Amino acid sequence: MQWFYSHFNYVLAVLLLVIGLYTILSSHNLFKKLLGLSIFQVSISLFYISVGKVSGGTAPILIGDSTQGEVLYSNPLPHVLILTAIVVGVATLSLGLALLVRIHNAYGTIEEDEVSAKDRNQ
Amino acid sequence: MTSLWLNAVLLIFLFIISISILRTRKLFSAIMLTSLFSLLCAAVFVGLDAVDVAFTEAAVGAGISTVLMLGALALIGSNAEDRSHTSTHRKAFAMCVSLFTGAVLLYGTIDMPRFGDHRAPAHQHVAPRYINTSPQEIGLPNMVTSVLASYRGYDTMGETLVVFTAGIAVFGLLGNVLKRQREKDVLPDVGEHDGEIVLGIFAKLMVAPIILFALYVQFHGDFGPGGGFQAGVIFAAALVLYALVFSVESLMLAVPLRAIRILMAAGITLYAGTGITTMLLGGQFLDYNLLAHNPVHGQHYGVFIVELGVGISVGAVMLSLFYSFMNYRPQQRRPGK
After folding, report:
1. Are residues B77 and B151 in the same domain?
2. What is the Cα–Cα distance from B22 to B26, expressed in whole angstroms?
3. CB contact at 8 A, A106 and B177
4. In 10 A of CB B187, how many CB atoms?
5. Treating both helix axes as pointing N-terminal to C-terminal, what angle do B295-327 and B197-220 enclose, rounded to 10 degrees?
6. To pair with A122 at 20 to 30 A between CA atoms, which of B17, B60, B287, B330?
7. Cα nearest neighbour of A76 on chain B
8. Among B84, B109, B134, which residue terminates a domain?
9. pLDDT tens across A37-57, in order?
């Protein structure tokens, strides 16, 4: 039980990842798959940021003139990695959406099974 | 202690929302839930001391990406539903794979250090150096900005390039907006419509402060939370708000696509150009120390210019994505398809 309390963030990140993965695998709808992919991405961000947290720490922005280690800061490195990953995430998401729109234009549907059925019938 | 409880409650909310995204059939509701999901996630990030990340998540996840998803949904029919009738066989398979992945990952977290442990390996290698020496070496209070723009400058440049490439790719997929714009070439109706007066006045009042805030985030990002990525997205969000309330055409008159295209490339050129300048000055790529006589001043200039490049590029790409989705007109399907 003690372990569960001290690893709660990691467990929740794994659960979110499982839901995201399940959405991607189980849904035939391509839009839904993209939403699942976003959940998947957020779970990984959450994991990184949780790893970077230091209890009793504060945001990694220098406070006053304290140059020595009097203030405890959280780890800035995961923040940097995830910050850029989120912006790259929206760019790749929009690329996925653009592909989705083109698929809808060509097949008239965004259901994966209907698209492959149309391909097979040709 | 309170913040830990708040964190736990927010995480449980995230879990519930993700379940409902999975179960919702209506895509419009699913998108709105995703937006809410991002906003809550930003709140979690604030609790975990990641203010810069929270800023980005709120601006990107809850803002721009919702608009883009709604734009795509409008193109495939705003009443679109998830009509998939997944077979039990496939559901079982998906459940097995995802649960197995989850189990393996949980097994991996068993011997991870306790949450918030300051002795964890993640805090041992480069992190102390960033925290202890970056205020003297780079001279900026915000360590995230120092790491982003200086220590890991290569990385950030690569990521800006990915965003730029995605913008170009969406241009390619959704067709030439510029040509269509020229074909139309009529002055759009920019007047306010009846019934949208409140919205119109509110939007007009809000656009300027949002742009001002974006500039503050851009230029104050070295000292407080913020930076080029967030500023670019917020800047684009202000213009998107204007376009949504009035019309995309009226925004395209004010900010033409041609300018957006040039700015997209200009931002990344500014970034890479800084690197090449430092090489010409006799240093390594992106070694800002050489930009001024005093290395710390050089770092200041370097971070400032690079962040500006990121802001310009990201803002322009976000706006170009928006334009692409808003201006796409489906072509006639070829017979036989």
Report:
1. no
2. 11
3. no
4. 9
5. 150
6. B330
7. B144
8. B109
9. 999 999 999 999 999 999 888
